[in-house]
Amino acid sequence: MEGDRWLVTLAGTRGAEPDTDPVAFDEFARKAAHPIVADLIARAEPLSDVRLYRNCSNQRRHFEALKPWPAGFVVLGDAVISTNPIYGQGMTMAAQMVLVLRDALDRHGLTAPQLGATVQRRVGRVIQAPWSITTGQDIRFPGATGPRAPLAGRITHRYVDRLGRTARSRPMVTKALFDVMSLAEPPTRLFRADTLWGVIKGPAGQALGEPPLTESERAYCHPRAATVPDQPGA
């Protein structure tokens, strides 16, 4: 972040959550698949207390179904949908809703009849994809409440599981996954022919056992472990 500051976020599922105690926070980081984050914060100066956030529920209000719609009224942002922040999609959804409003104003004008209802319907369509992504994954966690996935959803879960394993060693599949999770592409991107073929082939060899750090990056994380200067193009 600005001023050479780092923002460290740790997340855990029910029964394995981080703690506000700084020592416990460091210990939790050490339990991750790789100790790189724990190694970094062990040498860092804490600038604040550890803050806990546990409101990870997904909530959606179907304002688009309200009839008749009140004139001059539009609902955007968290008032429409709030999802598990671990997916990092809230700001993007809010921006996409604002774009819907801007485009409607450019096309129809502020005083157009049914402007609010038109915007709200389009907002409902925009948030459907991220809503399906977050709820479709979160319902799989132990203790989650909500409607269980139908057969088609369970088949999709198995496909996405294989896609996740494949993404560890096939960059093209990785990009498709990141594009969808960041809402840069619709979920159908995961089922495009090139992605589908990559998932069918499966992982390309052994998955990485640790971050592929350059020597200079390794020196930053472990100053005493680096012995060879980083070479251009490495």
What keywords describe this structure?
mainly alpha, two-stranded antiparallel ribbon, 44% helix, disordered C terminus, globular, single chain
Describe the model.
The protein is mostly helical and 234 residues long. The protein is 44% helix and 2% strand. The chain has 9 helices and 2 strands. It has helices spanning 22-30, 36-42, 90-108, 115-126, 128-138, 151-167, 171-181, 193-201, 215-221; strands at residues 59-60, 81-82. A two-stranded antiparallel sheet has the order 1-2. Helix 6 crosses helix 7 (171-181). Mean pLDDT is 87; it is low at 226-234.
What percentage of residues falls in helices of 4 or more residues? 40-55%
Largest sheet: 2 strands, antiparallel
Structural class estimated from helices and strands: mainly alpha
Computed Rg: 22 Å
Strand content: under 5%
| Low-confidence spans | 226-234
Shape: globular
Measured between the Cα atoms of the first and last residue, the distance is 26 Å
Total helix count? Answer: 9
Give the spatial strand order of the biggest sheet.
1-2
Mean pLDDT: 87
SSE order in H/E notation? HHEEHHHHHHH
Number of strand elements = 2
What's the gist of this structure?
The chain is mostly helical and 234 residues long.
List the helices and strands and how they pair.
Elements: H1 22-30, H2 36-42, E1 59-60, E2 81-82, H3 90-108, H4 115-126, H5 128-138, H6 151-167, H7 171-181, H8 193-201, H9 215-221
Antiparallel strand pairs: 1-2
Helix pairs in contact: 1-2, 3-4, 6-7
